[in-house]
Write a sequence for this structure.
């Protein structure tokens, strides 16, 4: 039986002047799936995330997230999603706990529930030792974990992670991978990355974007078969550069 | 707690925890008040009598509120924190109120610090002191509005230049605190009275002296400026919020 659809885009397009950032994107992501958008810088991944999270309006086309349109009903979409932006987005002078409670409060949780949920996130992301430290004193990896915790504390049904491990060292990256891996299956996660090994290690399916277009989508094995290569890197290069659009 | 209050509480904490800015913002006007009063004690100058000086220093001190507000918004914009919030269900009125509400008690606190220092330096405690706080409130809203506007338009370094240097100098030189702008006359006097800084100081001086009739028309002009600047700040912030959506 196929899982219900979490995200469906219909000819989603964004242009800035004469530049087309996202071109005619047709994509289906299933509920509970971890879907990675993989591409080099400027491929259109972040613009896609910004449109799906209602930060940027599409130039044409539409997308529905759990049945609500990003064009006609963005407030309903915003209540169901959360975003961890590419740059770490935390309140610098607030402690870890205060940052988490802030976001819970903004999404309408009362003070007691916010505190309980903050404690849960602190445990999930192993932030106990720095719970009362100001956010600006944390390492890059810790700040990124907090940033994702702030996105998760609202119980989003769809979570967007934009380049979650960008700029992290290998240990911090592996730690974050294990956190993301634990979330798999519980909520729908859409992750953008330009690290191939990250997409392969974490995702149920991968969409390869290049020059604003979705070139192919499928599991890592399916993409390698499609490209006729033995390594995923070769498959990515082949699909991102030469192949026709094959979206699923 | 409503989303606005939650956001306002965060902004309140962010500003209060920036100790260096806070100490400078409150400390500098107090030091000026003490210094100019000391000069006045040795070389009597009518301008520097405590009844004349207090209102001017209080208005000058409010320019630091613009700096606090502008820096907070500009930093939120530059660090993607605002991007995160823009994807939340917060509305534009939640943002505007959330940034404005915590600054009002801070501005009143800053005026109070100036008045308490002035009382220590010999200002009589009368009901006029309370009236002065009320009369300076529109000026406080004006400076908050300037901060919101600058923070929405500029990056944090530019806010430091515009609010930290330009605005503090404008509110000092064109306020009639350090010298009587009428003595300069000409275009300088016209400019000073076309802007709200000297008007705020004159209204405050009149209130402190108990000359309530003289508060006007200065206060009306300050209120008009405050209204225009706040409306402009709201429009610019909303445009920023929806900037990419067109």
């Amino acid at each position: 039986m196929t899982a219900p659809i979490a995200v469906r885009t219909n000819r989603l397009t964004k242009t800035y002047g004469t530049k087309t950032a996202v071109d005619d994107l047709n994509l289906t992501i299933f509920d509970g799936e971890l879907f990675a958008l993989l591409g080099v810088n400027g491929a259109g991944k972040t613009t896609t995330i910004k449109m799906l999270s209602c930060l940027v309006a599409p130039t044409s086309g539409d997308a529905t997230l759990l049945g609500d349109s990003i064009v006609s009903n963005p407030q309903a979409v915003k209540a169901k999603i959360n975003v961890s932006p590419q740059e770490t987005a935390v309140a610098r002078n607030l402690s870890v706990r205060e940052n988490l409670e802030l976001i819970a409060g903004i999404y309408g949780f009362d003070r007691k529930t916010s505190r309980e949920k903050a404690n849960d996130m602190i445990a999930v992301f192993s932030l106990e030792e720095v719970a009362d430290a100001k956010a600006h004193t944390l390492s890059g990896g810790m700040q990124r974990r907090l940033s994702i915790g702030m996105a998760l504390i609202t119980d989003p049904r769809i979570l967007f992670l934009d380049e979650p491990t960008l700029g992290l060292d290998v240990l911090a990256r592996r730690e974050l991978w294990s956190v993301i891996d634990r979330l798999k299956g519980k909520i729908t996660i859409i992750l953008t990355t330009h690290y191939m090994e990250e997409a392969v290690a974490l995702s149920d399916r991968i969409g390869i974007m290049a020059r604003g277009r979705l070139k192919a989508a499928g599991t890592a094995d399916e993409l390698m078969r499609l490209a006729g290569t033995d390594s995923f890197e070769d498959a990515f290069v082949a699909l991102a550069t030469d192949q026709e659009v094959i979206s699923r | 707690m409503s989303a606005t209050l939650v956001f306002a509480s965060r902004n309140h904490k962010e500003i209060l925890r920036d100790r260096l800015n806070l100490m400078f913002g409150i400390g500098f006007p107090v030091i000026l008040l003490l210094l100019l009063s000391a000069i006045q004690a040795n070389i009597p100058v009518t301008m520097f009598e405590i009844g004349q000086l207090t209102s001017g220093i209080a208005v000058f001190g409010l320019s630091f509120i613009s700096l606090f507000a502008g820096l907070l918004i500009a930093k939120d914009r530059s660090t993607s924190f605002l991007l995160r919030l823009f994807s939340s269900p917060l509305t534009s009125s939640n943002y505007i109120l959330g940034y404005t509400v915590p600054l009002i008690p801070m501005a009143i606190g800053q005026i109070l610090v100036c008045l308490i220092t002035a009382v220590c330096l010999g200002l009589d405690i009368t009901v006029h002191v309370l009236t002065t706080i009320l009369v300076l409130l529109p000026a406080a809203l004006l400076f908050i509005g300037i901060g919101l506007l600058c923070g929405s338009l500029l990056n944090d370094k530019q806010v430091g230049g515009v609010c930290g240097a330009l605005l503090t100098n404008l509110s000092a030189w064109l306020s009639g605190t350090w010298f009587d702008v009428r003595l300069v006359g000409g275009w300088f006097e016209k400019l000073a009275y076309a802007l709200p800084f000297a008007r705020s100081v004159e209204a405050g001086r009149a209130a402190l002296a108990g000359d309530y009739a003289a508060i006007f028309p200065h206060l009306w002009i300050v209120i008009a400026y405050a209204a225009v600047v706040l409306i402009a700040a709201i429009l610019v912030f909303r445009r920023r919020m929806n900037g990419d959506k067109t």
Remarks:
- Chain A touches chain B at residues 50, 53-57, 75, 78-79, 81-94, 98, 102-103, 105-108, 110-111, 134, 147, 150-151 (CB under 8 Å).
